[in-house]
Amino acid sequence: MIQLAAEIIRRGGLVAFPTETVYGLGADACNAMAVARIFEVKRRPSIDPIIVHVAEPGTEKRYGQFPPAAAALIGRFWPGPLTLVVPRTDRIPPIVTAGLDTVGIRMPDHAAALGLIRAAGGAIAAPSANVFGYVSPTEPAHVAEQLSGRIDLILDGGRCRVGVESTVLSLAGGIPRILRAGGITQEMIENVIGPVAWANGERIRPEAPGQLARHYATRTPLEILCANDVRAQPHAGEQVGLLTLVAPAHPDRYAAVEVLSESGSLREAAANLFAALYRLDRMHLDRLVAYPLVEHGLGIAIMDRLRRCAQADTG
Ligand code: TXA
Ligand code: MG
Question: How many domains are contained in the chain?
Fold first, then answer.
């Protein structure tokens, strides 16, 4: 199956493939026409740069110019959920980076993904395999629901282990900055290279996605609650779905309850987050409510996704 998938990519096709974070929608990173189809199929704004995925240590240097600090991060976290943004080389067509002179590159920690990237020629450009703005897919069925019939193949690798996307870290100048919270925490990065900053508030691009206020969104509106929040109470006849880290006190009040981790593990919660949102959204409830999680470690990435999902649609 990997050989077939690689053949499709070499010929300019689109393949959804598993990574340790979420499913990606892949095209040959050096084929501008194929990458253009990704934007079409996802209905993704053309200002939104796409991550380039590599498999062989050292090949990243063909596509980006890595500063000295990168070596320690790559040695520690690749393959894994860390995307490094660095100045790009000419091998990457401008459409991949949405015209930016930087490129995001990562090496996924997933055997099928690595096999596919190698067999397909060494670099696959891939955003998450969802329609733009909707919840990212962590199972093949999520991809099929959204993109079936519009892409050439879905490579089935079961469920994604990490469940939230890679951390995006800019090494493109000045102090390293986290552009998106993800599978590798700030603390893990700082243990290797010292202090990093957050790029919140400062926009790389006016609407660099993942940074868009409303993103990762369910169709059913979702609210984040405070402790003892009255909004947690369904009105008479109202169908409310609850998303919570651990088992709630009154599960019977809700039409559906998704517990992210019985034991309160943030890692397990991250792995379950998007699948839980898909299940709740498929039920066509009146609204969804979520209890906030502690914001340390992976809780930062989880709360980032929930807040963007909860953001009122401003059109
Ligand atoms: O875990 C992941 O990163 C997944 C899997 C498939 O690898 N991919 C993913 O891609 O989440 P996507 O396109 O959904 O999100 C990529 C994020 C976007 O927020 C984009 O703005 C940022 O990375 N990004 C990519 N290249 C960039 C660049 N050159 N400068 C700034 N941000 C960049
Ligand atoms: Mg995405």
Answer: 2
